[in-house]
Write a structure and sequence with these properties.
Strand content: 5-15%
CATH topology: Rossmann fold
Radius of gyration: 19 Å
Structural class: alpha/beta
CATH class: Alpha Beta
Number of helices: 10
CATH architecture: 3-Layer(aba) Sandwich
Length: about 290
């Protein structure tokens, strides 16, 4: 699936295209990450935009320095070169002050409260706002949430078309910091996309359910114009599940060790999501030609 670049450019409304490649160092890069890189670099280069590399290591428990080193090495080998964020490396773990400042901004304008609920207590995707008015004491081992008002968020995905989501009813109040003291993905990525000036978010279709709540949170933090969103297809296993770093699915380094060239790996990923009819070598500097 390819976006219409002329429509995408018009949606940017004259703003410069700034996007990001944002892997989490919880395992080795696999073909699904290569697909994301193809879309990120291909579209950015086709529209003379900028790519920021951001290491999303907000989860201090699962992220490992060895995985970060490996993913940076794999990106270099593949030939995907970021315009910013590589030297020095941009990491969420270095941005505590940024997130703390955003938290204080929310405290000044919204209802932020401590939450004692565990994932087991919640038991699903939607939080029932159990602790919203429970006056839970704010101390270590407590999460922090912000109250989300009712209302719909609508965006026109650059590949999938119009999408309507209701964060309050679908997700409940948003967790900002978990019980281990870690900033959550939803909060950290929203703050970073705002502060980094990201105008186009390109990511897999599995993350589309995050978009409405991130748009709402960004508006609460003062963002008046949301970024354009593009959610691209995923490579699925025969079981229908997406590829996983944790499962070691078709890692880039395994393909490299098996003798594949970087261009062959990129071509295999492009074919897996229908950007080309059959696998063929495609160099990183030529992925803009796919769009």
């Amino acid at each position: 699936m390819r976006p219409d670049l002329s429509i995408l450019k018009s949606r940017l409304g004259g703003s410069r295209l700034v996007t990001r490649y944002a892997p989490s160092p919880t395992g080795y890069l696999h073909l699904g990450h290569v697909v994301n890189a193809i879309y990120v670099w291909g579209i950015a280069r086709a529209l003379q935009g900028q790519v920021l590399l951001r290491i999303e290591d907000h989860d201090r428990i699962r992220c490992r320095p060895a995985f970060e080193a490996a993913l940076l090495e794999d990106l270099d080998w593949l030939g995907f070169e970021a315009d910013t964020g590589r030297e020095p490396v941009v990491r969420q773990s270095d941005r505590d002050a940024r997130y703390a400042g955003a938290l204080e901004q929310l405290r000044a304008t919204s209802h932020v409260y401590a939450c004692a609920c565990s994932r087991r207590d919640i038991g699903g995707e939607r939080y029932a706002n159990t602790c919203r008015h429970a006056n839970v004491d704010d101390r270590p081992s407590r999460g922090l949430r912000v109250e989300i008002d009712p209302g719909q968020e609508t965006f026109d995905d650059a590949l999938l078309g119009p999408v309507h989501q209701s964060p309050a009813s679908e997700n409940g109040d948003l967790l900002l910091r978990d019980r281990d003291g870690h900033w959550t993905y939803q909060f950290a990525v929203t703050v970073d996309d705002l502060e980094d000036g990201i105008t186009l978010v390109i990511r897999g279709a599995d993350l589309i359910s995050s978009t409405g709540r991130q748009m709402r949170l960004a508006r609460m933090l003062g963002r008046t114009t949301p970024p354009v969103f593009l959610h691209h297809p995923l490579i699925l296993k025969r079981s229908g599940e997406k590829l996983s770093k944790a499962s070691g699915d078709t890692s880039v380094r395994e393909l490299r060790a098996a003798g594949c060239s970087a261009a062959e790996v990129i071509g295999r990923a492009a074919a897996a999501v229908g950007l080309v009819e059959a696998p063929r070598p495609i160099a990183a500097h030529a992925v803009n030609g796919l769009f």
